[in-house]
Specification:
The chain is an alpha/beta fold and 259 residues long. The protein has two domains: 201 residues, 3-Layer(aba) Sandwich (Rossmann fold), CATH 3.40.50; 34 residues, no CATH class. α2 crosses α6, α5 packs across α7 and α6 packs across α7. The protein is globular and about 60 Å long.
Length: 259
């Protein structure tokens, strides 16, 4: 049940039977030259479409912007930062809490959003509410280790194929990850903001565009993705999420802290 498609009277009726709402949160950011900027928003939106076939939980409008500072520099990437996302989520959840919503399920499409979601969740707990943060791509890799992936690699590419194969630029899908040693050969780039120096990992926070030639990262190559993989993975996650929501519905709320 989409919040933006119902009247306030329908919301009142819904709240008589449930205090739970799902809030999809994505981002607009680079995912390699072969993938759309809206990857982290398009996938949660598709999950919600599939979920609606099984579950009538209330769903808030998707938030398409997230904390993506490390991906700035790739044209089209938009970041509202950790603080910006905390503000948006706080305003949204405070508004919903006023009417009686107490259980908030964040369907998250972007790892950089997690710090903001954690902060909001802790504040909600103090107010007698619960927040569950569902990172679909991490959970999919737990449901089936063969699906586990990185940023813009096989897992996310398959998921976008499961949404709409035409969104993937197949002429660029075979590109290598192509990391750049931007601090020279003695500090080899090894991962997301990390370098290796004499066998030890050092974190040097910086924008990914400085150490990645194309912006995808992970051990799962994009060219391993298939539409069949994507559809199976998304449906499996939806089936899991449906079960989770039905269980979370009955979880006891915490007592609100007194001022």
């Amino acid at each position: 049940m989409r919040l933006e498609r119902v009247t306030y009277g329908k919301v009142q009726e819904y709240l008589k039977k449930s205090d739970m709402i799902v809030i999809p949160v994505g981002s607009t950011e680079n995912h390699g030259r072969h993938m759309p900027l809206g990857t982290d928003t398009l996938i949660p939106n598709r999950i919600i479409e599939l979920l609606e076939e099984k579950n009538d939980v209330m769903v808030a409008p998707t938030i398409p912007y997230g904390a993506t500072d490390t991906l700035m520099g790739f044209p089209g990437t938009i970041s509202i930062g950790v603080d910006g996302l905390v503000m948006v989520l706080t305003k949204v959840t405070d508004s919903l809490r006023r009417y009686g919503f107490r259980k908030f399920v964040i369907l998250n499409g972007h790892g950089g959003n997690n710090k903001s979601i954690e902060i909001v969740g802790m504040n909600l707990y103090k107010k007698g509410c619960l927040l569950a943060d569902l990172n679909w791509w991490l959970m999919a890799g737990e449901l089936n280790p063969a699906w586990k992936g990185g940023h813009g690699g096989g897992e996310e590419t398959a998921a976008i194929m499961g949404v709409d194969p035409s969104l993937v630029d197949m002429s660029l899908i075979h590109e290598d990850m192509n990391l750049i040693d931007d601090y020279g050969p003695e500090m080899k780039t090894t991962g997301w903001g990390t370098v290796d120096y004499k066998g030890a990992t050092v974190i040097i926070p910086r924008e990914m565009i400085h150490y990645s030639a194309n912006g995808w990262y992970g051990k799962d190559r994009p060219d391993t993705a298939t539409e069949e993989w994507g559809k199976e993975m998304l449906q499996s996650f939806v089936d899991w999420m449906d079960d989770f929501l039905k269980t979370f519905e009955n979880v006891k709320l915490p007592e609100a802290e007194k001022d």
